[in-house]
Amino acid sequence: MQLDRIDLADIRDPRRIAQAIHRQLGRIEPPVPVIKIAHALGIVEVKQSQFDGFEGMLLTDRVRSQGAIAANTTHGDARARFTIAHELGHFLMEWHQFTDPSGFTCSPMDMRETQEGRRELRQEVESNRFAIDLLAPPHLVDPKLGDEPDLRDAQHLRDRLHISLEASTRRMVDRHPQVLAAVWSADQRIRYAHRRKEFPWIKWNSKDPVPADSLTSRVARNGNRGFTDWTLTDSFAWTDVVGIKLWEQVRVGSNGHAVTLLWVDLTDEFDEYEPVLAPRV
Prior knowledge:
Blueprint: H1 14-25, H2 34-40, E1 43-49, E2 56-60, E3 67-72, H3 77-92, E4 103-106, H4 119-135, H5 138-141, H6 151-161, H7 165-175, E5 179-186, E6 189-195, H8 215-222, E7 226-227, E8 231-233, H9 235-238, E9 245-252, E10 257-265
Parallel strand pairs: 1-3
Antiparallel strand pairs: 2-3, 2-4, 5-6, 5-10, 7-9, 8-9, 9-10
């Protein structure tokens, strides 16, 4: 594989860097060959293994002449692919300042970071944006989204693109024309949420119980795995807004884990909502 890194040198936006790579790649069949891309752009070694204490690591020099990436496979190959893409983002975005003397060491939290705060957080956000646009570019995602959102579509994207279900669900929330949010829970307690900025404020925080009057609570209690149909639910169960139409769909997985997809109808006019701070794990 031949890629021209000079073509990326003056781009300061992580998503545009990913787009420029895909322009060079041309038409490809998924999944995106992230390791081959990394090698073509100056990464001399990609090591995948089970590591303790970190999710990903980039070893490089200050001018990014070349680098080496380590990715933790403890949580599966799909998660490791995202980690490789995340570290490649640090490598290509030469304005990112080292977090270690020899490069970057990233935690599981960094792979989910969406809050732009201090410099270190902004760097993780940018690497995450690059990673998802590299592994799940719009031209491979959008044609696979149905007219109506469905968690089954996220599962199909997961399998097609070889990314995690969390990443594919986030991508669907961001790319689908309907206004969506997703909430991940375990043992009927909320872990974190992701929403479009148009979506009303989700009033629950990490470690709170899932709302007792929600579909999620009911299906989690019966323990049946799989997908539910869409169900109209009380908007105040999940949000701080009363009287809007809110639908809920749930996928119950193993070990008490579930993901909830929320779909809101905002055809009526409402005041603009403040951005939500995604709950931290």
